[in-house]
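Retry 2 of 3 after timeout on previous attempt. Resubmitting structure tokens to design endpoint.
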């Protein structure tokens, strides 16, 4: 997988188009007080220029990096609005009005602001050189690694301590920011191994976005990807709060099997998002997103009922307890807990085969996409958060006003305990 690229501080349609044409994954617009601030009207114009929003906007898996990977299959960059210390309600209103894809919180009140931003994909600035703990940020948020500054919230152009940033990025997928240019981004990628990189001043000339520098920066990142063979994994987990065993070998991230890592592994030499060094056996809790081949396959109540019955039967056969599920029109969210000897691949294979067979006989076409996305949860509080995200998906997607109104989720006995 390529290192993801965010061109931030964009203030003109021309700069946004240059970033998109160069192959940037994100376009960031500063919507807080800053010399790079883009006004609301210009922000809306930039969103309109880039075209239709990604279809993934209603899918918020338990890992921030996982959501962005799914959403980045769209044909245009994701548009991120950068905010400071504004109230969460104010941020949400602005994001809806402009049509943002995601929100970046660069202040120091992110957790308080996030209360009013439920359902929004969030990028949150952290300061590794101040000792910020990777475990302190909810897994639903994507960290942006910045250097600390006495007065400024971001965009300082200062480099974060590489050793501190590398430790943070080794613990969970993170985006690296601060002082990057086309000339030094390859060195920064090699030192920190980030999931993505963020640049603003490094692609400017005299305070304005320089289209040639944008193209040169994107090309430099893509060139840096090739020799590294970068493999990115969502937070390694297991039964310990802070797993060990993570190491760097041969230009790739590898994890000691004794640590039982979890999450998504994206590797350019593999077609499946399964981890190559994790057997998916045993009493682990998995959050799963399985996408259908078409957009509206789960609109028919009778077929969803058939799938729900099969889910109960097959999960019990393979030793899995279904903690939460939600059949959205174009995908299924599952939260399941295994037992000793239970196999996630075997469970998923039989469930997809059984439901796919019934669907094909009924409608004459495939039901599922080839693979699925998984994330292993490691703490009780993560399980609660994951279940709530699954059950809140219909509300976040605008399908219902309350989750209790949505008929295709459960199990009913667990919903009643929520």
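Retry 2 succeeded. Sequence:
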């Amino acid at each position: 997988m390529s290192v993801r690229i965010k061109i931030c501080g964009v203030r003109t349609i021309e700069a946004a188009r240059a970033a998109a044409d160069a192959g940037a994954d994100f376009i960031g617009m500063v919507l807080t007080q800053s010399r790079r601030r883009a006004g609301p009207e210009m922000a809306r114009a930039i969103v309109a220029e880039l075209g239709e929003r990604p279809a993934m906007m209603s899918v918020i898996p338990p890992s921030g990096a996982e959501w962005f990977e799914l959403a980045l299959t769209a044909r245009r960059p994701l548009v991120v609005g950068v905010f400071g210390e504004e109230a969460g309600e104010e941020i949400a209103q602005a994001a809806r009005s402009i049509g943002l894809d995601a929100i970046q919180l660069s202040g120091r009140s992110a957790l308080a602001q996030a209360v009013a931003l439920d359902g929004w994909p969030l990028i949150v600035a952290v300061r590794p050189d101040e000792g910020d703990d990777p475990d302190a940020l909810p897994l639903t948020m994507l960290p942006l690694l910045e250097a600390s500054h006495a007065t400024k919230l971001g965009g300082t152009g200062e480099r974060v301590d590489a050793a501190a940033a590398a430790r943070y990025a080794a613990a969970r997928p993170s985006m690296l920011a601060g002082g990057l240019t086309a000339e030094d981004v390859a060195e920064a990628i090699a030192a920190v191994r980030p999931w993505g990189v963020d640049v603003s001043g490094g692609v400017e000339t005299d305070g304005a976005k320089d289209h040639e520098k944008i193209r040169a920066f994107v090309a430099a990142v893509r060139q840096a990807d090739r020799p590294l063979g970068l493999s990115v994994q969502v937070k390694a987990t297991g039964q310990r709060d802070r797993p060990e065993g993570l190491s760097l070998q041969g230009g790739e991230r590898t994890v000691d099997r004794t640590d039982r890592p979890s999450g998504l592994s994206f590797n350019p030499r593999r077609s499946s998002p399964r981890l190559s060094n994790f057997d998916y056996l045993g009493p682990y809790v998995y959050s799963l997103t399985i996408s259908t081949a078409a957009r509206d396959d789960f609109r028919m109540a009778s077929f969803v009922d058939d799938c729900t019955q099969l889910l109960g039967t097959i999960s019990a056969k393979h030793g899995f307890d279904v903690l939460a599920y939600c059949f959205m029109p174009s995908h299924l969210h599952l939260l399941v807990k295994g037992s000793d000897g239970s196999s996630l691949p075997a469970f998923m294979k039989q469930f997809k085969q059984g439901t796919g067979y019934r669907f094909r006989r009924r409608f004459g076409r495939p039901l599922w996409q080839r693979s699925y996305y998984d994330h292993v949860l490691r703490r009780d509080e993560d399980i609660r958060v994951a279940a709530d995200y699954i059950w809140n998906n219909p509300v976040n997607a605008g399908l219902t006003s309350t989750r209790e109104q949505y008929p295709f989720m459960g199990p009913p006995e667990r919903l009643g305990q929520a």
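Attempt log closed. The chain has two domains: 4-230, 279-415.
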